[in-house]
Predict the structure.
Amino acid sequence: MKIMVSACLAGLNCKYNGGNNRNEIVLSLMAENDVITICPEEMGGLPTPRVPAEIKDGVVTARDGRVVDAMFRDGARKCLEVALREKPDLIVLQSRSPSCGVKQRYDGSFSGKLVDGSGVTAELLISHGFRVVDVEELPSLMAALCRLT
Ligand code: SF4
């Protein structure tokens, strides 16, 4: 199976603070499948580390007030190009990110409040019909697959 994953889940230090979101289930999937890693924010030209950003009134804005929407959307388009070329069977993305979040994201107030909705990359990939899951859904997805085999 071909799987596309958020690079921070694979242990790459591309998170806004220079760290990662290494995930053991993702690492086990990487051992058994053909995996492509993407970091839309780095692909959009943002540095690491970088000022964190959230989506405020539909516009990606950094905590220092700079509008960084164009870079986030450029990264999303580049990820879509990769997905259209590679045709992954499954895409696993990091939770709550303004790029990668699938089900929820922060509300733009930088207060830790969450709202329903996706990050800009997840939204673009979903709108093009790709099967996109939040990494937090992986345990139940894996359990369901085990029951089928
Ligand atoms: S943009 Fe996505 S892949 Fe990159 S650090 Fe943020 S959550 Fe991880």
Q: What stands out?
A: Residues 25 and 138 are 8 Å apart (CA to CA). The pocket of iron/sulfur cluster is lined by residues 6-8, 14-15, 39-41, 94, 97, 99-100 (CB under 6 Å).
